[in-house]
Write a structure and sequence with these properties.
This protein is mainly alpha-helical. The chain contains 18 helices and no strands. One of its GO terms (molecular function) is transmembrane transporter activity.
Length: 456
C-alpha cells in the first residue's frame, strides 16, 4: 500500500490544481482582462506540456531511476505553481502552466510506472485503487476550496497551496519510493522525441486556439495541419527503428488497444466536463464560484465510493461486460448535464453528479487496468508512456471540442458571448463521442483480463 499512497500524493496535488483552476476560471479571466473561453489556454497549455514530455518519461525513468526522476518532477511542478501564482498577464500564466506540465509529465507517469513494476498482475486493480482513492480527495476538495479562495481571498493562493503538498511528497519519495532502473537502456530516439513532441504540441496548440483567441483562425488551422504532418513523419520514422520512443506495435496487444483506443474516446467526453460544468453554473446560471464548487465536488465523492466496489464488480461480471454497459450509462450522464437549467433543484444536480461520478470512476479503473493486462514487464515503461500520451491528447480534445461547440452555438444565435442555451449542445456532442468508445471495447474477448479481475 505504501508506494501507491505516496504516488497518490503527487496525483492529489495535480488533481487538486486542475479542479481548483477550473472552478476559479471565470474570476481569473476577469482579473486578467480576458474572456473565460480564451483562458482555457491555461488548461490546454498544461495538457500540451504533458503530451510533449510524457513520451520520454519512461526512458528517463529507466535511465536515471524512478526515485530520482519522481523527486525532480515534484520540484519542477512546485516551481511552476509558484510562477502561476505570481503571473499578472495571460502569456505569463500560460508559460508557467507549461512549466507545471513538464513536472506533471514526469511525476504521475513515473510514479505509476514504479507502482506497476512493484505489484503482481492479480493485485493490479487493488493497487490502482490504493493509488486513486487518496488522489480523488483533490477533486473532492478542489471545487469548494477553489470557490472559497476565489470568492473570499484571492485566486493566486490556489497555486501556492501546492508548496506544502509538494514538500511532503518529496520527503516521502526520498524515504520510500524504490529506485528502479533497467539494466539495458537503448539509446534515446532523439529524432522521434522531436517529431512527436513538436507534432503533438503544435497540433494541440492549433486545436486550442481555433476561434477568437490569441492568434488568427487561419494560423490556428495551419498549426493543426503542421502538427498532423509532423506526427505522420514520426509514424514513418518509427517503423524503421528497433527502439522507437513510442512503441506503436503495442497496439497489436488486443487488451492494450481496446483500453487505450476506447479510453481516448471516453476521456474526450469526460475531459470536457470540468471545463463546461463550472462555466455553465457560473456564466449560465449566475452562481458564485463557491456555490459552483459546492455542487461539482460531489462527482469526485461518487468516484471515491465506486473505487471501493470496482474489484467486486469486475470479479462478478468481467471487464468486457462492465466496460460496455458502464460506458453507455456514464456517457448518458454526461449528455444529461445539458438538461440542467437555472431552476433545477440543487439536490437534483447533486444526485446526478454523484451518480455520474460513480460510473465514470468505474470506467476509468477498468480501462486503466485492462490496458496493462497483457503487457510484458520489460515493455511496461513504453506502455505507460504511450497510454499517458493518449490520455492527455484526449483531455485536450475534450476541452477544445467543448469550447468549439459553445462558440459555434453562440455564433449561430447571433451572440458574441456564451449563454446558458449553448451548453446543452456542448454536453450532447461530448456525450456522443464518449459513447462511441464502445466500438473498440466490443472487440475484447469475453475472458479478457480474467487474471486482473481474479475470476479464475
Amino acid at each position: 500500500m505504501l508506494v501507491p499512497l505516496i504516488v497518490a500524493c503527487a496525483l492529489f496535488m495535480e488533481n487538486m490544481d486542475s479542479t481548483v483552476l477550473s472552478t476559479s476560471l471565470p474570476l481569473i479571466a476577469q482579473d486578467l482582462g480576458e474572456s473565460p473561453i480564451t483562458l482555457k489556454l491555461a488548461l490546454t497549455t498544461y495538457l500540451i506540456s504533458l503530451a510533449v514530455f510524457i513520451p520520454v518519461s519512461g526512458w528517463i525513468a529507466d535511465r536515471f531511476g524512478t526515485r530520482n526522476v519522481f523527486r525532480t518532477a515534484i520540484g519542477v511542478f512546485v516551481l511552476g505553481s509558484i510562477c502561476c501564482g505570481i503571473s499578472t498577464h495571460l502569456p505569463e500564466l500560460v508559460i508557467a502552466r507549461f512549466v507545471q506540465g513538464v513536472g506533471g509529465a514526469m511525476m504521475v507517469p513515473v510514479g505509476r510506472l514504479a507502482l506497476l513494476k512493484s505489484v503482481e498482475k492479480r493485485d493490479m486493480v487493488r493497487a490502482l485503487n490504493y493509488l486513486t482513492i487518496p488522489a480523488l480527495v483533490g477533486p473532492v476538495l478542489g471545487p469548494p476550496l477553489g470557490g472559497f479562495i476565489t470568492t473570499y481571498w484571492h485566486w493566486r493562493w490556489i497555486f501556492f497551496i501546492n508548496i506544502p503538498i509538494g514538500v511532503l511528497g518529496f520527503i516521502l519519495a526520498t524515504k520510500f519510493i524504490p529506485d528502479l532502473y533497467e539494466d539495458e537502456v537503448p539509446p534515446l530516439d532523439v529524432k522521434g522525441f522531436l517529431l512527436s513532441g513538436f507534432g503533438l504540441s503544435i497540433l494541440m496548440l492549433g486545436l486550442s486556439t481555433i476561434g477568437r483567441h490569441l492568434i488568427p483562425t487561419p494560423l490556428a488551422l495551419g498549426l493543426v495541419a503542421l502538427g498532423a504532418a509532423l506526427l505522420a513523419a514520426y509514424l514513418r520514422h518509427a517503423k524503421g527503428l528497433d527502439h522507437p520512443l513510442l512503441r506503436l506495435d503495442l497496439f497489436r496487444i488486443p487488451t492494450f488497444r481496446a483500453g487505450v483506443a476506447g479510453g481516448t474516446l471516453f476521456r474526450i467526453g469526460v475531459g470536457a466536463t470540468p471545463f463546461l460544468l463550472p462555466l455553465m453554473l457560473q456564466l449560465g446560471f449566475g452562481m458564485t464560484p463557491l456555490e459552483s464548487g459546492a455542487l461539482t465536488f460531489i462527482s469526485a465523492a461518487g468516484a471515491m465510493f465506486m473505487k471501493t466496489l470496482s474489484l467486486r464488480i469486475l470479479r462478478r461480471w468481467g471487464f468486457r461486460r462492465v466496460l460496455m454497459t458502464n460506458a453507455l450509462i456514464a456517457s448518458a450522464t454526461i449528455g444529461g448535464y445539458g438538461l440542467f437549467t437555472g431552476q433545477t433543484s440543487h439536490l437534483v444536480i447533486l444526485g446526478t453528479l454523484l451518480f455520474g461520478g460513480c460510473f465514470r470512476s468505474l470506467q476509468f479503473t477498468s480501462l486503466n487496468a485492462i490496458s496493462y493486462a497483457d503487457v510484458p514487464g520489460h515493455r511496461m515503461s513504453q506502455a505507460t508512456s504511450l497510454a499517458s500520451v493518449a490520455q492527455q491528447v484526449s483531455l485536450t480534445l475534450g476541452i477544445t471540442i467543448g469550447a468549439a461547440v459553445l462558440q459555434t452555438s453562440s455564433w449561430l444565435h447571433g451572440r458574441d458571448h456564451v449563454a446558458a442555451a449553448d451548453f446543452p449542445w456542448a454536453f450532447l456532442v461530448v456525450g456522443l463521442i464518449a459513447v462511441s468508445s464502445t466500438i473498440s471495447i466490443a472487440r475484447l474477448a469475453r475472458d479478457a483480463g480474467s487474471e486482473l479481475a481474479q475470476r479464475t
